[in-house]
Amino acid sequence: MRIVMIGTGNVATILGRKMKAAGHQLVQVVGRTAASTQKLAHQWEANYTTTTTQLDQTADLYIIAVADAAIASVAAGLTLRHKLLVHTAGSVSKEVLKASSDRYGVLYPLQSLRASMEQLPAIPFLVDANREEDIEGLRSFAAGLSGQVGVAGDEQRLKLHVAAVMVSNFTNHLYTLAERYCEAEQADFALLHPLIQQVADRLQYGSPKDAQTGPAIRHDEPTIQKHLELLASHGELQELYAWFTKSIQR
Predict the structure, then answer these.
(1) Entry pTM
(2) Mean pLDDT, residues 125-138 taken together
(3) What is the enclosing helix (H) or strand (E) of 187?
(4) Alpha-carbon gap, residue 121 to 230, rounded angstroms
(5) CB 3.0-4.6 Å disulfide test: which of 85, 135, 157, 240 passes with 152?
């Protein structure tokens, strides 16, 4: 498939690599700055442009992979008529693309992606489109990139995006707070890395509620009180510890 990638950030970079590895042709990269756009285009042996007025009109698929807040404005500058146009966001409706083409949809990678990744991670995809034939086309296309592909409309995709924020962004914030606590208390946060990995690995074999351990689930009040006392000088952490303890027990 011939593809135009609009965007040069983390998602665009990883998806482009994934698509090129699957045998697709990246014919053009569209970006805001010449340096970053040219660099990415060189990696993919593609043409590049920093203006949508020079958009290649010969591609089969046009992908807007930019920040969620910028999708509507980027789409407003496109006139693609009968070409398939998609964005890659979980929280943005496909309808923001309808003025740009009569064929539009979503190719949402349900994964945290960084351009610096050396190894391409497993990426589940959720697809949607305004035409049934394009839903099937996108599902087939995504199946060539991933073993996990589903169809999800705007509402269902948004619900999964909320869950993704909880398991990724919120969890990572807890790691950040724990690391700061360790630094303040002269403890080695790196010693927790195997535990973090082990807890994540358990999810492959069952429900997270069945894997819950710790003093809260055991109602071990003496240990809970010792922890709360130890966190007395870490106000926010003490509040979070108490809240999560009650939530687990409920």
Answers:
(1) 0.90
(2) 98
(3) none
(4) 39
(5) 157
